[in-house]
Inverse folding.
């Protein structure tokens, strides 16, 4: 959904990154993302998807090039401010959840923002409803199934109501019904989203734009329809057509 | 399953106890923390020859176990590592005290002090979540940094337990015929365990930071202090005062003579 003037949320120009002076994981990447877009970040294992997402929330800072989020350059002084606008759903939910119960975990973010108890309560309820896990409210985090953990992780981010939501492999571990629920949820959310995944069917169902990464470079940036139906392009870059377009 | 798995299950059981919708669980965490602290101070301050008073003070831990529907056997089992240490505290008193008789009395008094302390601490943990305890600690002005450290340590211990469990399970599944772990594998297993625990601890900390954590403990207990909480607090403080400052043993004795 695009409303009014589109704000320029992400500006990335000639961004490069390396872990510990090994080889470059990301090479000269340039991307611009505007308010309301849902961008799929695809590419095979180890291509640098998670690395790019971590750069966007300031978990990795020693990059080269330009990286601006909500019009602020990503430098140490701005990190806290930027993070108020951007939420990150980890690839591994075990690292995302740490409070005792689901409810406490989902409330953690809003509480840190100093919101009133009623407001926190409201946001928690809303986030749990959106992710269809109200019934897990009082359940212990360590007792959740893999898929339930994923949904709870997403709820912990939704309760913070960020402008941009980053998701790393959100569809992993979800059964068909919850996968469908998540697709509907993502399509209903007005926020800007960046979804890293190699579940191309999921990307096709949720994203209007796709960035294809290969060996640390962006080899294609365009509409989801064009890129995800381009057999040659996908196969040249280590991927396969979404299942629905195969055979 | 491995021993570690068992220990994790025990933490899980404690968590289950905390979750029960039980009268004592619903008492405000601040009230429970205050009573526990006051009681421990009270017990510690009893003269080491005043065995009579120590015996009477047993009323609080036993009542709390009763109200909280906690099993003494379970508590002893969970505290099995700490209790022997507690028991050893006064072990040499019979030898070093002024007389053997006095020594035995002071030994028993000291042991009771240790046992009561462990019991009430267990009762607190078993009926209150770590978040709520930390919240109550903040309410009585324990410094932010200390409370956050307690919380993080608790979390990291849990992570280390989980990682150890995963590694052991993976190892056992691939070496099913083997009893225990081959000595050659210990080094790399422990190395793996430390690295993975550290990695996860770091990720968890990152997750906290990304969700606005700036070193301040923002947890708020949903429970409001009710009349029942205040009454519970006042009644116990009253009982403590009577037990401590009147010589209750003499008074009761006097009734029968
Ligand atoms: N902490 C680290 N230190 C050194 N190298 C790393 C580190 N994290 C990732 N890498 C390397 O950087 C590259 C990109 O990793 P990244 O996690 O971004 O890939 P990805 O696209 O998310 O892969 P996947 O689809 O498997 O999740 C990989 O080659 C990986 O080995
Ligand atoms: Mg990844």
């Amino acid at each position: 959904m695009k409303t009014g003037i589109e704000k320029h949320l992400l500006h990335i120009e000639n961004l490069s990154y390396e872990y510990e002076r090994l080889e470059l994981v990301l090479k000269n990447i340039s991307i611009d993302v505007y308010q309301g877009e849902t961008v799929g970040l695809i590419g095979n294992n180890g291509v640098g998807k998670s690395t790019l997402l971590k750069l966007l929330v300031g978990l990795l800072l020693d990059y080269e090039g330009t990286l601006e989020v909500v019009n602020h350059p990503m430098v140490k002084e701005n990190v806290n401010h930027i993070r108020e606008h951007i939420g990150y759903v980890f690839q591994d939910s075990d690292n995302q959840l740490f409070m005792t119960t689901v409810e406490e975990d989902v409330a953690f973010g809003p509480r840190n923002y100093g919101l009133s108890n009623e407001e926190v309560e409201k946001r928690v309820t809303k986030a749990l409803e959106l992710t269809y896990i109200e019934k897990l409210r009082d359940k212990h985090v360590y007792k959740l199934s893999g898929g339930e953990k994923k949904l709870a992780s997403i709820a912990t981010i939704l309760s913070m109501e960020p402008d941009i939501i980053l998701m790393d492999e959100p569809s992993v571990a979800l059964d068909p019904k919850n996968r469908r629920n998540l697709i509907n949820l993502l399509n209903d959310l007005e926020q800007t989203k960046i979804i890293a995944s190699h579940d191309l069917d999921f990307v096709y169902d949720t994203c209007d734009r796709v960035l294809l990464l290969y060996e640390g470079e962006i080899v294609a940036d365009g509409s989801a329809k064009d890129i995800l139906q381009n057999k040659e392009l996908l196969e040249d870059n280590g991927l396969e057509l979404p299942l629905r377009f195969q055979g | 399953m491995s021993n570690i798995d068992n220990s994790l299950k025990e933490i899980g059981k404690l968590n289950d106890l905390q979750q029960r919708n039980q009268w004592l669980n619903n008492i405000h965490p601040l009230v429970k923390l205050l009573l526990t602290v006051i009681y421990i101070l009270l017990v510690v301050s009893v003269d080491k020859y005043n065995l009579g008073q120590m015996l009477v003070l047993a009323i609080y831990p036993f009542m709390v176990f009763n109200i909280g529907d906690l099993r003494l056997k379970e508590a002893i089992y969970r505290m099995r590592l700490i209790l022997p240490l507690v028991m050893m505290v006064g072990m040499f008193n019979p030898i070093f005290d002024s007389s053997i008789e006095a020594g035995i009395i002071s030994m028993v008094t000291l042991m009771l002090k240790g046992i009561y302390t462990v019991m009430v601490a267990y009762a607190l943990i078993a009926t209150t979540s770590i978040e709520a305890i930390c919240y109550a600690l903040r309410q009585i002005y324990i410094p932010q940094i200390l409370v956050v450290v307690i919380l993080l340590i608790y979390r990291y211990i849990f992570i280390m337990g989980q990682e150890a469990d995963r590694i052991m399970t993976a190892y056992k599944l691939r070496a099913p015929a083997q009893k225990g772990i081959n000595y050659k594998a210990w080094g790399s297993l422990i190395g793996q365990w430390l690295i993975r625990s550290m990695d996860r601890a770091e990720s968890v900390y990152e997750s906290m930071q990304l969700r606005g954590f700036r070193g301040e403990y923002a947890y708020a207990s949903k429970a409001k202090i009710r009349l029942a909480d205040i009454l519970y607090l006042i009644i116990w403080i009253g009982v403590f005062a009577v037990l401590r400052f009147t010589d209750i043993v003499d008074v009761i004795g006097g009734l029968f003579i």
Remarks:
- Residues A 49-50, 91, 168 surround magnesium ion (ligand 2) (CB under 6 Å).
